[in-house]
């Protein structure tokens, strides 16, 4: 028997774009047919995009998705296809349609509904009951939906029904630990069932979530047949040999750099690009302070959108160092972005003139420092409004965790690329970006982020000789404690037992707990860890638990 050819659509299908998604499926089906594929496969909820959230509560939206899947079925002469869509039958199911010969031949429903982390499937869907198997060119193909493969039973049921090959369609968000876990699960399912497995994943940014693609193929003996690159849109060609249940990739793109930093950087770039483009903004604006967070944010924005769509604004005050001024201007010129300098001193002084009579002779404190930040926030928001460029907030996860950020000041912005990136990771990414640029140009002295900015002690520059470590533990120590408390959900006693200073642990944890109200008002940003603030980590603002 000749090898069985599949076309796997590792593409972005945006939420709510039913007509555009349907047109893309139709175009990719035509390419699959022309390339000799017997079966074209598309991700979870291709038609609606994932996650459609409360759009699923609108009957008109569900009807539109149903009409779309019916119209695609009519275009399947000479090709079979598996396409994800929301299936409404009085109740709503997360479904995959098997299309062939101009008809919807079969529909299967997702059986395991995740309701943890960023997932909320049980709010919208009812669970399916059975695993589906379809015959294409004599090959028995089982097909499952995302979470189904993380449980043993659905794959076992497909194998018991005679499946030789199991196709899993997914909308699985990326985080820095996901790929290794996926591979472990798929290898286990292949060994349990003896079936070859194809894991096709969505790619693209959707609000606070990024999908990496990273599709996988596993042979029936559990060996990895192929890995698709992360954050790359591609029609992936695969051949299945039923004699030994092996899969073979045909000309899959290859990632030049698969390091942790490279993949994380790509996730952030994709998150920015898709958030800006899908929401129809012409470009972005950010405050460029001469510090490492804004410097990395600028580099990410330029890599995502190109320099012509990025504006940087330096807003110096009396405490702004020459190093900051030189670093900001140098980076803006090096990256080729529009750059402006606005002296905030006169505006800050005007605020102080108005407020001093009401301060009642109180001594200066963080109020005056925060007012500098809020003055900058007012300026940036005005520029954003006037020029129609979305404002990027530049704060990182370490700052968001302990509240080392000013509401309506440096927290201003509609999107926060570094919101789920710890400060120590900011440094690693910055060094990686410079190294990548040097490899690209062959110039050891080249950079995207000024080396002096990377090497300097971090500072908010809101008073003389200020550094972050005046208020916080060293970032290596802080981030280690935060990761244990946030990602690992360890108790204070467990963290102390691991060797961290008791007073420091109590102080850091208190800061995390009392600053929930700030995080609730922060901009969305891409989820890249296993426990992101926002839709994933949801703690009460008002709580007696300490």
From TrEMBL:
L-glutamine binds at residues 116, 172, 178. Its EC number is 6.3.5.1. Keywords: ATP-binding, Ligase, NAD, Nucleotide-binding. ATP binds at residues 287-294, 394. It is an enzyme of class 6 (ligase). It comes from the Bacteria. It catalyses: deamido-NAD(+) + L-glutamine + ATP + H2O = L-glutamate + AMP + diphosphate + NAD(+) + H(+). Residues 4-242 form the CN hydrolase domain. Residues 439-473 are annotated as: Disordered. This is Glutamine-dependent NAD(+) synthetase. The gene is nadE.
């Amino acid at each position: 028997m000749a090898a069985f050819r599949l076309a796997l659509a590792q593409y972005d299908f945006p939420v709510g774009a039913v007509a555009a998604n349907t047109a893309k499926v139709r175009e990719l089906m035509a390419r699959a047919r022309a390339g000799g594929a017997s079966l074209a496969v598309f991700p979870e909820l291709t038609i609606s995009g994932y996650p459609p959230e409360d759009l699923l509560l609108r009957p008109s939206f569900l009807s539109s998705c149903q009409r779309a899947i019916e119209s695609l079925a009519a275009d399947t002469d000479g090709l079979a296809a598996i396409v994800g869509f929301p299936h409404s039958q009085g109740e709503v199911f997360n479904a995959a349609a098997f299309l062939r010969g101009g008809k919807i031949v079969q529909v299967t429903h997702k059986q395991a509904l995740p309701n943890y982390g960023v997932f909320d499937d049980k709010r919208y869907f009812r669970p399916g009951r059975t695993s589906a198997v379809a015959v294409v060119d004599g090959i028995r193909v089982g097909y499952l939906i995302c979470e189904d493969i993380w449980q043993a039973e659905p794959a076992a049921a497909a194998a018991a029904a005679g499946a030789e090959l199991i196709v899993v369609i997914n909308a699985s968000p990326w985080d820095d630990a996901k790929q290794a876990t996926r591979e472990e699960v798929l290898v286990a399912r292949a060994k349990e069932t003896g079936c070859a497995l194809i894991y096709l994943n969505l790619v693209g940014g959707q609000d606070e979530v990024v999908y990496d693609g990273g599709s996988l193929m596993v042979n029936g003996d559990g060996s990895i047949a192929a890995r698709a690159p992360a954050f790359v849109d591609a029609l992936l060609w695969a051949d299945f040999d039923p004699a030994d249940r092996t899969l073979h990739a045909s000309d899959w793109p290859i990632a030049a750099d698969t390091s942790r930093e490279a993949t994380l950087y790509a996730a952030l770039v994709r998150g920015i690009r898709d958030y800006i483009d899908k929401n129809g903004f012409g470009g972005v604006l950010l405050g460029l302070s001469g510090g490492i967070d804004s410097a990395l944010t600028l580099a990410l924005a330029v890599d995502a959108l190109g320099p012509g769509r990025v504006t940087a604004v330096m807003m110096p005050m009396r405490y702004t160092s020459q190093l900051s001024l030189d670093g900001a201007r140098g980076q803006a010129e090096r990256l080729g972005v529009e750059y402006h300098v606005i002296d905030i001193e006169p505006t800050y002084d005007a605020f102080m003139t108005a407020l001093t009579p009401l301060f009642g002779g109180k001594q200066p404190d963080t109020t005056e420092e925060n007012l500098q930040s809020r003055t900058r926030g007012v300026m940036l928001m005005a520029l954003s409004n006037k020029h129609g460029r979305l404002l990027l907030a530049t704060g990182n996860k370490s700052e968001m965790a302990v509240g080392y950020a000013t509401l309506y000041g440096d927290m201003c912005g509609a999107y926060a690329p570094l919101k789920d990136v710890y400060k120590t990771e900011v440094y690693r990414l910055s060094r990686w970006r410079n190294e990548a640029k040097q490899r690209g140009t062959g110039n050891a002295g080249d950079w995207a982020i000024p080396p002096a900015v990377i090497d300097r002690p971090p500072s908010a520059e809101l008073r003389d000789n200020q550094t972050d470590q005046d208020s916080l533990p060293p970032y290596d120590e802080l981030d280690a404690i935060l990761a244990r408390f946030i990602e690992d959900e360890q108790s204070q006693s467990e963290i102390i037992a691991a060797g961290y200073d008791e007073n420091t642990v109590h102080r850091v944890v208190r800061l995390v707990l009392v600053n929930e109200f700030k995080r609730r008002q922060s901009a969305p940003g891409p989820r890249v860890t296993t426990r992101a603030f926002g839709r994933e980590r949801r703690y009460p603002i008002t709580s007696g638990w300490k």
